[in-house]
Amino acid sequence: MKQILLSEKLFHGAVSVEKTNEYMKPWRIPFDKREFYYPNGINGQAEMPAGVRIKIRSNTQSIKIGIMEASELMEMDCVIDGTLVKTAYLPAGETIVHFESLAGQTKLIEIYLSQKVPVSVSGIWIDEGAEWELVDDSRLQWITYGSSITHCYYSDSPSQTWPALAAEKMDLNLTCLGYSGNCHLEPMVARMIRDLPAAFISICAGINIVGGKTLSDRTFTPALIGFIQTIRDVHKDVPLAIMSPIFHRERETAANEVGLSLEKVRSDIRQVIDMLKQHGDQNIYYLDGLDLFGEEYEIYMPDGLHPNGEGDKIMAVRFQELIEAHVPVNAG
């Protein structure tokens, strides 16, 4: 097999790519400023490449990806022309994943990296006589920000997270900023989204703010306003969908120690969107999390909070339906 020269242009969906003499590692924050994303690069979640894929066009019938030693069991997907053809399972300590028996014609190859474990790519190999080229993804750029429900630890595999499935169906170029255990309206994340290219932005906020009590009845609304307005410093007219939390029985109506419940947060988000519309933002939209994934889908949340693989498929469909009904993503 012949080796492809590693380049950051191979990685799609990453915010930055760390380059050393041994590997390239995609990050979902600017890795050289990771200390700014306190604590520890958003609690270590930003180095997990949710939604990040290696993308080439080639007629190779096999592709091999070298990685620095896997720290734990991880999954990687091979997607050909938009269709998942194989999921590889790499045990801890493994350094090679090999996808074989691919069709011989020229095709779009996407290797989705694990969303659960940091991945440092040490090499890429294809068949000796194969041709290949980099891919310039000209689709509309979608940035989605959220918690573990957007990070999708419990999906069937990396290309089957609800953001990845929705992006494929809606023909969007995904950057997933789902950070498990986080999404506390961090100001540095707002600045990062502001500075990234985007044609559509979605934010799902509230679930960990209520559970972690990190913002209160007093501070949640101003934090949300500031987060949105920071993004609007640059993305003044980009469609912006703000999603309230999906159903979680334990936190629905009972206020926590700082005065917030999911019911209260949904009402506060709706009021913020209405206020911003009154002040001239006509391209901001409220999506109720209960319309996205309500009580009727509770059976697809084994722990009562996180959708499982089947739940992610439902969320992808519901998200597409809600966006196509309410948000003019492709307008203009």
TrEMBL record:
Q: What Gene3D superfamilies does UniProt report for this protein, alphabetically?
A: Galactose-binding domain-like, SGNH hydrolase
The stretch of residues making up the signal peptide is none
**Ranges for the SGNH hydrolase-type esterase domain?**
143-323
Q: Which residues form the SsfX3-like N-terminal domain?
A: 11-114
InterPro entries in the record:
SGNH_hydro, SGNH_hydro_sf, SsfX3-like_N
In Swiss-Prot or TrEMBL terms, this protein is called G-D-S-L family lipolytic protein
